[in-house]
Amino acid sequence: MQFRIFPRVAACLTCVSLVCASSFVQAQSQGQNHNRGQGETAPAKLNALSRVQISSELAARIIDVRVRAGDRFSEGDLLARFDCTELKAELEGAASQRALARRQLDANISLRQLGGNISELEMVQSEAQLAEATANAKVLTHRHSQCSVFAPFDGYVISRTVEPHQRAEVGAPLFELVDNRGLEVEAIIPSGWLAKLSLGDQFQVTINETGHEYSATLQRIVPVVDPVTRTVRVIGKIEHEADSAPVSILLISGMSGEARFRLRDNTADLLADGSDKKTSRGAN
């Protein structure tokens, strides 16, 4: 059995096919544009600007520890104190030696002015003794100032490795401290993105622990490509105290999430520039 398709029906079917194909292409194009608008994502984490380990500068017994892991502190707060009884006695002795050397030099100067028999060598020796006593007193004064450990900035205690009555040696770790006020976001991106990003670009960061999105500015690009993964580390400043999210939600070092970058389409930018130039010439 043979079927005949009338010309009008064939024309209608052809139109329907063309419309469907056009709709598919348009939808695909819109999807691609939508994805470009959403940006490309990369893993990210938060790093503190200041994270330090405080070590002992004295070999002495610890008599007081004021903070524990997780405690918050302010700049200048007392963190720990050493037993500096012996060092204090040494400092007092050095001060006495300096005073004695000062008096000896003054006496020699006065005697020489009165015509006494004071040789140049004796004058030089008394001056040297005073200088030595002064230097020794300064050294002991500096060491005595280290009997108390004060916080260098506002922040939190990450860890504490000493207890009261424990003896610490020079260089022994006491505390690890972190300042979460200034945070940087570090993202690992494909090296192929470098041509489509510039310092100063804005990007978005979603933090897993808070569930919020934050704005950030690209500040630095580490100029080394990982030879295995072909990735690059980029670092930006995250803004978390203004418009991005409630201030009550604390961001801390080590939180992780996802950074979303809007990559420049160099071809599209060139076409846009050309179109703008043509429009400008047409207006003239």
From TrEMBL:
GO terms for molecular function: efflux transmembrane transporter activity. GO terms for cellular component: efflux pump complex. Residues 84-143 form a coiled coil. InterPro entries: RND_pump_MFP. Keywords: Coiled coil, Signal. Residues 1-27 form the signal peptide. NCBIfam families: RND_mfp. Belongs to the membrane fusion protein (MFP) (TC 8.A.1) family. This is Efflux RND transporter periplasmic adaptor subunit.
